[in-house]
Design goal:
It is a single chain. The chain is mostly helical. It has a six-stranded parallel beta sheet with strand order 3-2-1-4-5-6, with helices on both faces. Helix 2 packs parallel to helix 12. It starts with a helix and ends in an 11-residue tail after the last helix.
Length: 550
Amino acid sequence: MLGSVFLEIGVILGLAAIGGFIAQFLRQPLIVAFIAIGILVGPSGFGMVSHSSEIELFARLGIALLLFVVGLKLDLHIIRTVGPVALASGLGQVLFTSVVGYLIALLMGMSPVTALYVAVALTFSSTIIIVKLLSDKREVDSLHGRIAVGFLIVQDIVVVLVMIGLTAFGQAEEGVNIGREAGVILLKGALMLIGVALLMRYVLPGLLQRIAHSSELLMLFAIAWAVLGASIGDLLGFSKEVGAFLAGISIASTAYREQVAARLVSLRDFLLLFFFIELGASLDILNLGGQLGAAMIFSLFVLVGNPLIVMAIMGYMGYRKRTGFLAGLTVAQISEFSLILAALGLSLGHLGQDTVGLITLVGLITISASTYMILYSHPLYARLAPWLGIFERKVAHRELDSTVGDEEKVDILLIGLGRFGASVATYLRQRGCRLLAVDFDPEAVQHHTRDGYAVHYGDAEDPEFIASLPLSRATWVVSTVRDRAINRMILHGLKEQGYKGKVAISAAGSYDAKFFEQAGVDMVLVPYADAAREAAAQLFPQKKADNPPA
């Protein structure tokens, strides 16, 4: 006990910063550090801080903002982009994990209600952690990245529906007609959705347009709207989380969603710190030790079972084993929503503190382990690839669909449709070039296919990528990717496949350009330097010297 709440918060923030630094060094998400710091400073540790209404208030605000930002970023376009695989993988994984997890919990002697909570908590993966890891690896726009984000959105929607159901179930008293209670809940939910729809259509667009003249006022309104939505959700018999989620959805279709979301992320993360600290401080270390065996069983199920079901579904739908494997790794952990769900069960009297500790321990184990699995996903795939063939169909892969006929001659096979690659493709087509483009971004593939390009999906970091290309039909292979390691993989693959045509490689600078020239490529492109040289020549054509040197 430190006596002063202000001092308590100061100590918490200082230790959280130190713990965050250690977590960053170990390449772990900050959630793990914050829960560990909560255990350290709580009654089970040094007893430096105690439960306070201020810390609890910060924690509740953090959860409300988390759900608000989830609603704000609810982009159904991502699900449409990757097609039905996001829905099939998301719902299939939720169903599989819930059913199997429930049976495992029952076999371990848990009551049906406790087993249900544990099973549902095992189904959700952390959108925050996964998107951060994929962004760090520059894989958010890859096919497996988009599929992963798609089924994480599906999970986010499911978790909100689960919270609605559990809250309604918790508020139904003994002897009350369950059917009537369900009807009342549905009626309240319908009225709330109608109210949100009316606000989205007639009020919020104009109001936000006026408010947006001041960025400070826009942020204040967003926070107030999130808290107000959470309060209304709680008042109507739902949870604060559901109300905050719907408040986020209500302004997700406006032009200001990105600005609001970007500005709120830091505040959300700051306030969530207190939720994880509070959760850690409420855990009993001795009790956690007794839950270690059960936690290891559930953790192994999440780390192995969840990726396997995603790979099975994606393989059945025609995706390659590599895409299924990389997407499957993103569900090999439980999320902050699982911990929030456990806290909700505790508040409703459905769970005891020991079950909350069990779910938290599973979270710590799976988040820590899956982080390394995702960071080292490519070396891990290289080791496991020979045994993953059962998750891949023998028919033509969905990823390799192309608008080019099998026997049609190709002048240039272009790898990469980024800004530079797309510009090169446009000018080549204007010159009458028979072009086949390849890109790892499924949205770019769809966009350029609609424009009449011959395009198919391909990931240059895939060891089997070069073998999938129609090299025998191409006169040139041109890489507009400026990553040296990827281009070296491409050159190595071309050599292994015995490609006899010409090769052009893009370089990030003069050092890489010299390296590829020495490697014997036919042409080296240096986009920025080439463009700068041409721009300088047009701006200031070189004049002939009056007295040329002897």
